């Protein structure tokens, strides 16, 4: 066998091994399967106002920055936020108003300010208030 052929064969076997190890690591890290975390959703709320708030959460793309019950961006989970903040504080965080604004980077505070005119803001606050620690 030529040296070039041996090198190509070794390269192909190495690539196959790397892919196999990556797949194995993925399966071990995500036992529920690919995308299982993204598909998890909290149970549907019974109160129509809370349901409208949940739809607003989804429509506004809040899961790009936040997660609920493991669904969304895990960097800023909202699980239990209703136990930690009252309605006024939740509203302040949603729209980036004081005193929450002092804790936010300016770029995020500007982005959140657009939610002040959101027609479903009260419903979104009501939905977040339902997210309580057990």
User: How many discrete domains?
Assistant: 2
Helix content: 40-55%
The unreliable regions are none
CATH architecture descriptor text of the largest domain: Orthogonal Bundle
Residue-averaged pLDDT:
86
The tally of beta strands, per DSSP, is 2
Walk across the major sheet and give the strand order: 1-2
CATH class of the largest domain: Mainly Alpha
Biggest sheet architecture? 2 strands, antiparallel
The rough form would be described as elongated
SSE topology string: HHHEEHHHH
User: Rg, please?
Assistant: 22 Å
At the third CATH level, what is the topology name of the largest domain?
Cytochrome Bc1 Complex, Chain D, domain 2
Beta-strand percentage? Answer: under 5%
Number of helices: 7
* N-end to C-end Cα span: 67 Å
Decide which structural class fits the backbone. mainly alpha
């Amino acid at each position: 066998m030529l040296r070039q052929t041996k090198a190509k064969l070794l390269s192909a076997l190495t690539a196959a091994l790397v892919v196999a190890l990556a797949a194995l690591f993925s399966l071990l890290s995500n036992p529920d399967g690919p995308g299982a975390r993204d598909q998890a959703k909290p149970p549907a709320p019974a109160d129509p106002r809370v349901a409208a708030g949940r739809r607003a959460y989804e429509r506004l793309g809040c899961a790009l920055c936040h997660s609920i019950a493991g669904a969304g961006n895990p960097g800023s989970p909202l699980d239990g936020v209703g136990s930690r903040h009252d309605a006024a504080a939740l509203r302040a965080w949603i729209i980036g108003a004081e005193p929450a604004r002092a804790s936010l980077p300016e770029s995020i505070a500007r982005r959140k300010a657009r939610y002040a005119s959101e027609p479903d803001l009260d419903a979104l606050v009501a939905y977040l208030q339902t997210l309580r620690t057990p």
